[in-house]
Design a protein that fits this description.
Length: 450
Amino acid sequence: MGIHLRAEVDALRRAAGDELARIFGAEERDDDDTATALPVPPPGAAWTQLIARRTGERLDAAVGRPVRRVINATGILVHTNLGRAPLPPEVARELPRLLDAYCDVEYDLASGGRGDRNDRADRLLCALTGAEAALVVNNNAAAVLLALAAHLDGERRQVVVSRGELVEIGGSFRIPDILAQVGAEMVEVGTTNRTRLADYAAVVGPRTALLLKVHPSNYRLSGFTAEVGAAALADLGRRSGVPVVVDEGSGLLRPHPAPQLAGHASLSELVAAGAALACGSGDKLLGGPQAGLLVGRADPVRRCRRHPLYRALRPNRASLAALEAVLRLHLSGRPLPLDRLWPDADEHRQRLEEAASRLPGAEIVPADAYVGGGSAPERPVPGEALSLPGDDALLARLRTGEPPVVGYLRDGRLILDLRSVAADDDEALLAAVHAARDDETPFSAAEGEE
Ligand SMILES: *Cc1c(COP(=O)(O)O)cnc(C)c1O
């Protein structure tokens, strides 16, 4: 028994040592401190746990800690660096039960035969947007790619797009590059600031595969500008037998009453306007998981579904399940995390006062929140936030505390905007602020600069 245990421990130590050495670098393999630093082995499971813990600690140091929950007190609701939209808690709670089991994602339980991975989400999307058909892919970049690729056909390879919409969305998603990737011939029309319907009409011909309209996301044209709306473009498309594809971007399903989103055409409006396809993200204004949505007429959606690229771009089961659940919430009309940006004024004031009363030095001050995710970048959502004495050092301690809290500095004060914080996280936020401030010494900022 003793010999057996010894052999097991040696094997474990060697395995952990080699694998860690690959991550930590070559020197570690030589000095082999994993082996020397370990104490005389206690029996069985405890030893295994000890190795697991040590390995975990050293991995954290070498490759960084695992992805963690973060409290987003920036007031930017769809925060791209913080994982975009948070899922509704009732959806997030159910997800893990699907992940450690099998599920009927592509199986029809009634017949015992193969099912369609997309069926449910498609029907929900159609119900929500009035589209004839819908398809879900991995993200919106994939949706745009697929929509373009599926409409290029033999000699028909020209994609007509306004010079005002040849944008980079971020992360090198550049419209001209995407067009080049799928082998489309880009036909630019109009000027940077003004594009008219006649500009499109002048170039449409037998080689036109589609008319493309792109929401410029976090880029704005203002002043002497003109663009052609989806309805007018779709009308031209209908008359000339050319489909119109619109990259809406945000995944806004229906018109939103907030003034910040006025003028942002939703997927349902684009479908009603006659777009063959409208593409949007799952994790921006829709408030779901990372996903790309294609909604529109039956034939163009079928083309996308049958295109060989679809298999490479399809969503994973966890995203699909989360998306379905979020779409069901949209249909039920229940509040979603996006609604946090426009809270009931009295309730929100009460929440702020409660928090301020427990944080010495806190005040309630006017502050702007933002939708984020490329939507309405110049349309702040006015309101109130917490303001506390603070500096860069406090900001850093909050970021590196447990749970990490991300706020911002304004005029030498720390601002924490609760509109991007779930009410359930208020206690954790207060505790994190207390912990970060108790650490504070008058010289901490100076020491940090050393
Ligand atoms: C966000 C966005 C994209 C990219 O969507 P992902 O889901 O991040 O792939 C593309 N186009 C527009 C207009 C966008 O706003």
